[in-house]
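Title: [Solved] Methylsterol monooxygenase 1 3D structure

Original question kept below for reference.
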Amino acid sequence: MATNDSVNILNSAYLAVEYIDSFLPDNPLQQPFKNAWNYMLDNYTKFQIATWGSLIVHEASYFLLCVPGFVFQFIPYMQKYKIQQDKPETWEKQWKCFKTLLFNHFFIQLPLICGTYYFTEYFNIPYEWEQMPRWYVLLAQCFGCAVIEDAWHYFLHRLLHHKRIYKYIHKVHHEFVSPFGMQAEYAHPLETLILGTGFFIGIVVFCNHVILLWAWVICRLMETIDVHSGYDVPLNPLHLVPFYAGARFHDFHHMNFIGNYASTFTWWDRIFGTDSQFIAYKEKEKKQQLMTKKAN
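Solution (posted by the thread starter after getting help):
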């Protein structure tokens, strides 16, 4: 009975969104996007699209999303939004990070990306424009992928902090006490495989078109680069996502090493009490701010 009720609620929600969508103006970018998509299908094989297309989406998205945080370090006005203001980025650290990223991207992640084509073939995932899901379905699927990845990340990330294995794997990622955007995927190759597995679980569950592979890559990179940015910028649209952790939440994890293990949402840390030190830290900050205001 409960299952039927849930299905009815989801169907009602889907119909409601579909009804609202019918009143929205046409997207002016839809036709150019359709033309580009069909051109891609006509001129490249599925293997090329799945493999090289996925690589291009990942690399372009990653480094483009890193640009704002990289530029912020040169803008004095933005320094008031930097979370750990006493630990500025250095060229030495950023160059070291960049070199490690190139190794991980092309020697760890690229071999995994090469399996994308075989995944789509095995599960008969379509590429055609006509079978592409609507924007709200794609958005819901990405959210579902994020929920699954977040659960995987919380428990495996917490395990990687165990004192018996921390120094062998996860310590690499914590070389930077004050994180910056490009450092999001700076990790030991084993960590890339272990935590990266969570990314693919949602794909296996939800994928009904190759576009979800790319949409979820972009969403995941947007989130992980944001939380590693080191800047708590106001009017960040990601803060509109319910229970979104954000940069300040994850920055504390790098500063404190204990707690705040989830990647995207706050609920697992809240349920298991692993955000208690962060909450105490925020309360202490508030008291200090009040005392400063009174003193002025």
